[in-house]
Amino acid sequence: NFIDKNYNIYNKTYIIKLIRLCISKQERNQQDFTIALIKIDHWKFNLFALNLKNKITKETAKAIRGNIRLVDELGHVGGGVFCLIMPETGLSNANIALNRIRKLTLKQLNIFIPLKDKRFSLKVSLLGYPKDAEVINHILDSQAIPDFLEDNCVKTADL
Fold this sequence. Notes:
Layout: E1 3-4, E2 9-10, H1 12-29, E3 33-41, H2 50-65, E4 73-78, E5 81-87, H3 91-112, E6 121-129, H4 133-142, H5 145-152, E7 154-155
Antiparallel strand pairs: 1-2, 3-5, 3-6, 4-5, 6-7
């Protein structure tokens, strides 16, 4: 099964398979693509009860999915971490799209999450192929997407 049933998006195994397919397509057709690694960030997130973490993660997945193109692919790769594949999209266009997606996602999160302290932000790391091919291949080989994100992401502004 390729769907993470908790969040109704692709699971880590399948999103890695899709990235490998994008690499093959890029090598054949020279079609660049961008991967966005997105992490939910809240100063108390690790202290939340599991059911609240799951609700926040589920609402985030739903919000991101509702704000991306039909050709984009979204997967859950662990904890509050998502991987968004943006086919035929260079880094500069992906950055523009991600700013829009981030704003809309945070707006929706702040509506649906029943917390007084709603200072959520999204940590994002963009990787373009073929520019970041070496890094992407390393992540795929080690399957360490959440670990990479912890070390290399950029915290976006709070909403």
